[in-house]
Amino acid sequence: MHDILLRHALEQASLDSSVLAIHHRRGPEIECPPVSLSGVVLRRGDGAYLLRVHQKRPERSQEDHDSLKFVLDRHGLRLLERDAEDLYREPLFSNARTIWSHAGRRVSLMERLKISIALEDGPKTLLELENLTRILDVAGSICALACENLLRLDLHSQRLGPGTLVLGP
Asked: Residue 152 CB: number of other CB atoms within 10 A?
């Protein structure tokens, strides 16, 4: 179950415009408090976050929380914990899954150019892009480009559809 939760967390993080980089870190195993500093690190503008996913977020005493924060601070990290309830929250969960179902889809150079030109004047909805570009499956192309981190979409306010806002990189 942990692996699928981690996959969902990574899919969502990769589509989050505040995440600048995702990498795996090898780190020491700290005994007091017991914590591994190995794992996925999300780099954002405000720092590096060690990602931890759980079925249910662990409960910690204030003392344990402070000790953990101290260890992470010493290594230039902050803790980002996500649990199943958070990861399966809609509409983000379905939107991320839909977008990633288009990963690896071929988007022709002509389609890329049409989309790029249409977005020069600022963000557009999927419906506006469909009308401007005349691309047969504009949603699939947009999703594939989002997987390549070439476009951003508003994934939080509504389910992916004609009104979804598409933004440049």
From this structure: 17
pTM (two decimals): 0.90
Answer yes or no: is pLDDT of 21 > 80: yes
| Environment class of 92 (CB within 10 Å of its CB; exposed 0-12, middle 13-18, buried 19+) | buried
Per-residue pLDDT at 10: 98
Residue-wise DSSP of 76-136: TEEEEEEEHHHHT-TTHHHHHHHHHTTTT----HHHHHHHHHHTTTS-EEHHHHHHHH--T
The gap from C-alpha 148 to its chain's centroid, in whole angstroms, comes to: 12
Q: Which residues contact 7 (CB under 8 A, 6 or more apart)?
A: none
Fold adopted by 2-87: Trna Endonuclease; Chain: A, domain 1 (3.40.1350)
Work out the average pLDDT over 138-158: 96
The class of domain 92-167 in CATH terms is mainly alpha
Question: Residue ranges of the domains in the chain?
Answer: 2-87, 92-167
Mean pLDDT for the chain? 94
